[in-house]
Amino acid sequence: VSTGNICRSPIAEAVFRKLVTDEKVENKWMTDSAAVSDWNVGRSPDARALSCLGNHGIETAHRARQVTKDDFQTFDYILCMDESNLRDLKRKSNQVKDCKAKIELLGTYDPQKQLIIEDPYYGNEKDFETVYQQCVRCCKAFLEQSH
């Protein structure tokens, strides 16, 4: 989960989907991404995010969506990008009875200890590549710990 679901979270979703497919465990995972805000609902990921993923041979057909109450009851993990996302998600989860999702920063899994995955929206291609590399490290570590 990220703020608008057009940069960081669709990159993380696409990276994780490729990892579980490569590991042949995709049938054990339901993978999606979403936003805490409703700003971009229905939009494709940022062109720079798509370009970055494409440079690594990854495609996505994701459309931005906002986190729903059902997400807290459906998913085992909701991983987000920064402290603001974490606060918003915890506040929303408090309004959901039977919340089963463990809500964490994706960066807690980074072997390089980069806890926050900064929003590259106002940055350049290099910033999107940084997000991609962080997501690869974190998603690999998360997958190793969870199966």
TrEMBL record:
Entry EC number(s): 3.1.3.2, 3.1.3.48
Keywords: Cytoplasm, Hydrolase, Protein phosphatase
Annotated SUPFAM superfamilies: Phosphotyrosine protein phosphatases I
Keyword presence, Hydrolase: yes
Entry GO MF terms: acid phosphatase activity; non-membrane spanning protein tyrosine phosphatase activity
Coiled coil (residue ranges): none
Annotated GO CC locations: cytoplasm
Enzyme active site: R8, D119
Primary localization class, coarse: cytoplasm
Localization annotation: Cytoplasm
Annotated catalysed reactions: a phosphate monoester + H2O = an alcohol + phosphate; O-phospho-L-tyrosyl-[protein] + H2O = L-tyrosyl-[protein] + phosphate
Ranges of residues in domain Phosphotyrosine protein phosphatase I: 1-145
UniProt-listed InterPro entries: LMW_PTPase, Ptyr_pPase, Ptyr_pPase_sf, Tyr_Pase_low_mol_wt_mml, Tyr_phospatase_low_mol_wt
Family: Belongs to the low molecular weight phosphotyrosine protein phosphatase family.
Function text: Acts on tyrosine phosphorylated proteins, low-MW aryl phosphates and natural and synthetic acyl phosphates.
Protein name: Low molecular weight phosphotyrosine protein phosphatase
Gene name per UniProt: Acp1
